[in-house]
Design brief:
Length: 509
């Protein structure tokens, strides 16, 4: 008789073998679900949606999470799995000793707590320094967020302190490298953009008041990301400091010959001075290279002349506040203003009563700008101008020192425009004024050319379209109408706002 081959079961061949469910993966790696989540976050493994999900789930419509089999095999060789197993055993031993009231055993077991580092994972995920820089946005946002967390709560104080140290180190680098680009105050916090090695990095600095952590957030997941990001930022800070010949961990220039060596040594006064962002950092002694471009050699070459011009503009922007000497009143947000002013070449100080590291007092005759956030001052110096904090932010975004008339103490401030917004769609009137007129004229010419196409030609073109393209065209028309509706809505809103302002002005007059 005929010998039959082995019957092939459904789901054991083809693309079905590329996927594995989360439950199967957890069983294979012998992990708990929280540990599996953690290892996936650290290693950068994410679930994937198969094309034929129902077929893979063997007809079941129950929600299932699928991973690539190759990814799970890759995780199986991770040395951290052994550490997770050791931690599990450690917790059991501590619980057992506590249950028996054997405090000596508890002490001995805790001294041998399993430790691990994520250095090897950082090297795997970011083989080049450029890769780490590109992935820094989320890391900075999370670290700055946790640095403002309350000390008593769901997050350990040690983690919060570590985040604060890394955040302060990074801000000192921004000041030393003068790489500030854009800033914007929003309800969420202050958006900041800097440029490092040709990459734009944007993150949010929370406002300076502590908010209680919400109860509906899974802190275990966030802390897993934070564990990776703190390690990454530690490496990045070290590399950035070494690129600028700065000593790392940061050290104040005046403390070079003292025994105080870093923020990590727990000296509270030294740490406060470092966190003030108003001290000069010590450098490693090294011969400076002459990087200046010889402009005579470049004469005649338009491309290179353009590069020289753009470089000059960049240098001018980096020294925007060079001739300005600021004094901050106690009511203004100090940290962000010090970061912006010092990173663009300005001098800044405050009252010695409100914080350490003030360079000069309020009576200094050389002060040019006094930043206040109160409508009136009890005593005013005629040699300086009293302005509101928004002037600093708007000057940075416009890359020039703006006239102070609109920003004097007690004045109704102009709208704070976002430099991150896309110029398409609705633009506030103030933004339109600031845009280059040539760009707007070019746009108008293009629109006129588009309108020149007669209605009859348009109708015939639509009729000649294939069905698929016609469907796509209708979708485009629909989305354009939707966008136009949103723009008109914002315009009406602005008109109502201006009307209400005018009514208030006439009522007070």
């Amino acid at each position: 008789g005929r010998i039959m081959g082995k019957l092939q079961k459904k789901g054991e061949r083809g693309s079905a073998t590329n996927y594995i469910t989360r439950t199967q993966a957890v069983k294979k790696l012998q992990l708990t679900l929280p540990d599996f989540r953690k290892i996936c976050i650290l290693k950068g493994i994410y679930p994937h949606e198969p094309k034929k999900k129902r077929k893979l789930a063997k007809g079941s419509s129950a929600p299932k999470t699928f991973y690539y089999v190759k990814d799970i095999q890759y995780l199986a060789h991770e040395p951290l799995l052994q550490k997770f197993a050791e931690t599990k055993v450690f917790v059991k031993k501590v619980k057992k000793a506590l249950g028996r009231d054997e405090l000596d055993t508890v002490q001995r077991v805790r001294e041998n707590k399993p430790q691990y580092t994520l250095d090897h994972i950082v090297k795997e995920r970011y083989p080049n320094f450029a890769d780490a820089i590109k992935d820094l946005d989320d890391a900075l946002s999370l670290i700055f967020l946790f640095s403002t967390m309350p000390r008593q709560g769901k997050v350990q104080p040690g983690i919060i302190n570590k985040c604060r140290i890394l955040a302060v180190e990074f801000m000192h680098y921004v000041i030393a490298a003068r790489c500030m680009k854009k800033v914007f105050i929003s309800i969420k916090g202050i958006y900041v953009q800097v440029e490092i090695n040709g990459n734009d990095i944007s993150w949010i600095i929370p406002h300076q008041f502590t908010t209680p952590p919400p109860s509906n957030i899974d802190f275990k997941v966030m802390l897993s990301f934070l564990e990776l990001y703190t390690t990454v930022l530690g490496f990045v800070n070290f590399k950035l400091y070494s690129n600028l010949n700065l000593i790392y961990p940061p050290k104040a220039l005046e403390d070079v010959f003292t025994e105080k060596s870093s923020v990590y040594y727990g000296d509270d006064i030294y740490r406060e001075r470092l966190e003030s962002l108003n001290i000069r950092l010590a450098q490693v002694e090294r011969l400076e290279d002459d990087d200046e471009i010889d402009e005579e050699l470049l004469a005649g070459d338009e491309t290179l002349e353009g590069l020289v011009q753009s470089r000059k503009e960049e240098e001018n922007f980096k020294n925007l506040f060079n001739d300005c000497k600021f004094f901050l009143s106690r009511e203004v947000p100090r940290e962000i203003l010090v970061l912006i002013i010092r990173s663009l070449g300005g001098e800044v100080s405050w009252s010695s009563d409100s914080g350490v590291a003030s360079k000069y007092d309020e009576n200094d005759p050389d002060i040019t700008h006094h930043i206040v956030d109160r409508p009136s001052q009890s005593h005013q110096f005629l040699s300086r101008c009293y302005i509101q904090p928004q002037w600093v932010f708007d000057s940075v975004n416009q890359k020039k020192l703006l006239p102070i008339d609109d920003y004097v103490a007690g004045a109704l401030l102009p709208p704070h425009l976002s430099p991150f917004v896309n110029t398409e769609g609705y633009l506030p009137p103030e933004q339109v004024e600031l845009l280059d007129r040539n760009e707007t004229e070019d746009k108008e010419e293009e629109e006129e050319k588009k309108e020149a196409l007669s209605a009859e030609e348009k109708r015939l073109a639509i009729m000649a379209m294939p069905k698929k393209r016609k469907i796509l065209y209708n979708k485009m028309i629909h989305s354009n109408k939707k966008k136009a509706g949103a723009v008109n809505k914002l315009k009406r809103k602005r008109e109502e706002l201006d009307e209400n302002r005018e009514k208030k002005k006439t009522a007070t007059a």
